[in-house]
């Protein structure tokens, strides 16, 4: 890697890769020893990050160790007299094993000075950065340094896309201690295998910031948008004085000056706990000031990604009030918001006294880069570009291909069909089992060159940021899914209508997956997987967006998939049943409709498209054309009933566990159920280890109830059950016909009907069917009559 004719070593590239990583991947690389053999690990994490962006965000729960870090924060954080927060570093039980790094930090500083001598263009911005640290009291001189304290090496890292400092200091908290002599010439008594790095003594803490996906799709629904960032966020949080001895460095401006020791007084980027402590402090500020700034406090906890703010409002007045609240709230904790930008100049004008921190609305050449996506605030459009120009001369290898693909940062899937093409190339690389720098097979080499030459066309692609029509009176969500032999995907649109009947349909987001390698999974099963992906994507979108949709529609061009979704899962084979259950848990089967393949925008994300093909794909951006017309013109047709595939084979066995003579011996339903539960436990204990002992559990009682009910239903409704399993309906002559019977997830026959969408409890909407002439039914009625204190027929019937 070369920049400005300066060769950058793999060690420095490791620090560059760290700057590209986020969340858990960043935490892992921060704890890696900074050596060349660890560079490959960081590289793998960068590629892993590409795949993680294609996953749908899910709610995360704290582990016990993460909860410990959270409690440590709460027990030790406080505000000083200026309102700024002071935190303690969350050490684990390895602090006593922290090795001595005095000499290695000293040697690496001398190496930094030699680099300054060779490249003066690096020294000036670096010296200015360190002066700023001293002037802002972010670091202070140590009068009596102790060689046994922790010392962190530091070096210059280039950040080409920075609008402030391209060369900045980075502190290495993962340097490996060596066999070092202390000031008395003695070597420490720790074995090398026992010594740990500074980062290894720190607890990392949970990931608490919102996902980029969530922040970006929420950013797209505001009529008036605002973005900003927090100036030097980490350095606004003070570290307790007792912990600063672990953050010591060597520094001097000139080699002719004495070498001095400084301690860093604030959170330090590069320490593994810093991301959690910085974000958690911001959330603590929001909690502490919520009574003064309620709206801004919610936004701070919802619309920040680390130090980047993306927010907005539906009215100019509310957006202006939010901007002022945010400024006041953040300043009360010592944080300064800068680099404001908006799609409306009136929101920027009050901040115009500090033009250096404001991207002016009137400058069309300045597209603001936020969370990896460019936003032209004047046109109010989102666009994409590669982080670096693609070299036409470089050798095409697995490494160079993946480095270029990793630049395709598309968190919300607006470029879904293009990204799928990249995924398929990546999958082909893995399938070919080529090494990182090995010559590629001709077919992969050709496919990559064809794909790569079109990537510069990405700069011609843009999307409207705001996807909701102003003053909308009706908002619908439409999701589409599709699959092919190579991939499957889902995309979601918002269709909004104003009071004049004007309609706007725009893509919110998409997700895709390549078909599994070495698998003979069928197309219908892949179509079902696409439907699951759509259901999960809808679950996240509906949770994240503050919109109550008037209607929700899901569209698939697979009649087989739609038939499966409308079938009780328990009669389907395991693979299909599990996925149908997921879909039916998140969505209602009545929300699923058939769409002709030609009108399905998800077709593009299931096959992939080149950049040139994508540019002309208006259906992808705007949804099917008929969505912009009245609903009467939509292609809604009844789902064609097909003979079911993947139906579970059911073997009917005559059981001796329960028979009528046995049931008739009991005069209490409670005693009967407990007897059956004990029989089931006995049967289980004959083959299971460990044995179940003690009192019957609630689950065992429930299982016995299910067995008894299914037994009497099988006796009384044998033909209806057979017909429902075979042809999904009962005979027209059956007395149960008018009750629309169906099987629940336990295989129990229940009453169907048209009140499925009512707010009644499930058992009230779908009561269990019981035969009239059954001893068990009599026992149930007797039981309910007794517990209602003989209140009468009507009350017993209600029970």
Automatic annotation (TrEMBL):
This is Uncharacterized protein LOC108623559. GO terms for biological process: DNA biosynthetic process. Pfam families: DUF1759, Peptidase_A17, RVT_1. It comes from the Eukaryota. Residues 222-338 form the Reverse transcriptase domain. It comes from Ceratina calcarata.
């Amino acid at each position: 890697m070369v920049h400005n004719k300066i060769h950058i070593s793999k060690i420095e590239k490791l620090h560059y890769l760290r700057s590209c990583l986020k969340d858990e991947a960043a935490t892992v690389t921060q704890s890696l020893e900074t050596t060349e053999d660890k560079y490959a690990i960081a590289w793998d994490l960068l590629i892993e990050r590409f795949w993680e962006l294609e996953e749908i965000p899910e709610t995360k729960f704290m582990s016990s160790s993460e909860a410990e870090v959270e409690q440590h924060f709460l027990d030790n954080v406080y505000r000083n007299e200026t309102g700024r927060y002071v935190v303690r570093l969350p050490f684990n039980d390895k602090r006593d094993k922290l090795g001595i790094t005095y000499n290695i930090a000293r040697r690496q500083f001398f190496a930094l000075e030699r680099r300054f001598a060779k490249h003066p263009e690096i020294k000036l911005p670096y010296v200015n950065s360190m002066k700023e640290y001293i002037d802002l009291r972010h670091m202070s001189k140590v009068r009596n340094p102790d060689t046994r304290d922790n010392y962190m090496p530091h070096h210059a890292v280039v950040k080409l896309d920075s609008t402030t400092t391209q060369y900045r200091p980075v502190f290495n908290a993962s340097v490996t201690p060596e066999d070092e002599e202390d000031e008395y010439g003695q070597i420490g008594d720790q074995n090398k295998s026992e010594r740990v790095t500074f980062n290894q003594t720190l607890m990392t803490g949970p990931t608490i910031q919102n996902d980029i996906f969530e922040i970006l799709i929420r950013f797209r629904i505001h009529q008036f948008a605002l973005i900003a960032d927090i100036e030097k966020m980490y350095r606004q949080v003070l570290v307790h004085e007792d912990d600063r001895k672990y953050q010591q460095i060597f520094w001097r401006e000139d080699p002719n000056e004495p070498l001095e020791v400084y301690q860093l007084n604030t959170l330090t980027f590069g320490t593994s706990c810093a991301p959690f402590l910085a974000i958690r402090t911001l959330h603590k500020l929001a909690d502490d000031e919520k009574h003064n700034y309620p709206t801004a406090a919610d936004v701070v906890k919802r619309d920040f990604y680390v130090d980047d703010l993306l927010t907005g409002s539906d009215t100019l007045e509310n957006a202006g009030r939010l901007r002022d609240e945010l400024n006041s709230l953040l300043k009360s904790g010592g944080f300064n918001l800068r680099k404001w930008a908006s799609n409306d100049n009136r929101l920027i004008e009050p901040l115009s006294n500090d033009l250096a921190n404001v991207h002016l609305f009137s400058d069309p050449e300045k597209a603001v880069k936020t969370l990896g996506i460019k936003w032209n605030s004047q046109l109010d459009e989102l666009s994409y570009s590669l982080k670096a120009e693609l070299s036409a001369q470089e050798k095409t290898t697995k490494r160079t291909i993946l480095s270029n693909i990793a630049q395709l940062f598309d968190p919300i899937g607006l470029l879904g069909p293009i990204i799928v093409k990249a995924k398929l190339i990546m999958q082909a690389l893995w399938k070919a089992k080529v090494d990182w720098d090995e010559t590629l097979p001709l077919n992969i080499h050709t496919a990559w060159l064809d794909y790569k030459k079109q990537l510069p066309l990405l700069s011609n692609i843009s999307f409207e940021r705001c996807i909701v029509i102003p003053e909308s009176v009706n908002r619908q969500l439409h999701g589409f899914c599709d699959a092919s032999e190579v991939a499957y995907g889902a995309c979601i649109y918002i269709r909004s209508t104003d009071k004049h009947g004007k309609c706007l349909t725009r893509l919110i987001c998409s997700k895709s997956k390549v078909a599994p390698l070495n698998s003979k999974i069928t197309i219908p099963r892949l179509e079902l997987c696409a439907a699951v992906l759509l259901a999960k994507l809808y679950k996240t979108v509906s949770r994240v967006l503050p919109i109550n949709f008037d209607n929700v529609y899901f569209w698939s061009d697979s009649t087989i998939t739609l038939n499966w979704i409308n079938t009780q899962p328990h009669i389907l084979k395991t693979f299909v049943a599990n996925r149908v259950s997921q879909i039916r848990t998140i969505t209602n089967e009545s929300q699923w409709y058939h769409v002709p393949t030609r009108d399905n925008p998800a077709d593009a994300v299931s096959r992939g498209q080149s950049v040139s093909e994508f540019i002309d794909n208006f259906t992808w951006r705007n949804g099917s054309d008929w969505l912009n017309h009245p609903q009467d013109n939509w292609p809604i047709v009844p789902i064609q009933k097909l003979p079911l595939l993947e139906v579970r084979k059911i073997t009917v066995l005559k059981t001796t566990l329960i028979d009528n003579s046995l049931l008739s011996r009991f005069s209490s339903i409670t005693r009967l159920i407990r007897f059956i539960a004990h029989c089931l436990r006995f049967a289980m204990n004959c083959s299971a280890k460990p044995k179940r002992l003690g009192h019957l559990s609630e689950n065992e009682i429930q299982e016995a109830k299910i067995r008894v009910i299914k037994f009497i239903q099988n006796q009384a409704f044998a033909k209806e059950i057979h017909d429902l399993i075979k042809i999904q309906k009962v005979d027209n002559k059956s007395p149960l016909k008018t009750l629309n019977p169906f099987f629940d997830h336990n295989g129990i026959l229940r009453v169907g009907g048209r009140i499925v969408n009512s707010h009644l409890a499930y058992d009230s909407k779908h009561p269990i069917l019981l035969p009239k002439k059954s001893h068990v039914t009599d026992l149930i009625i007797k039981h309910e009559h007794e517990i209602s204190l003989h209140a009468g027929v009507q009350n017993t019937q209600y029970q």
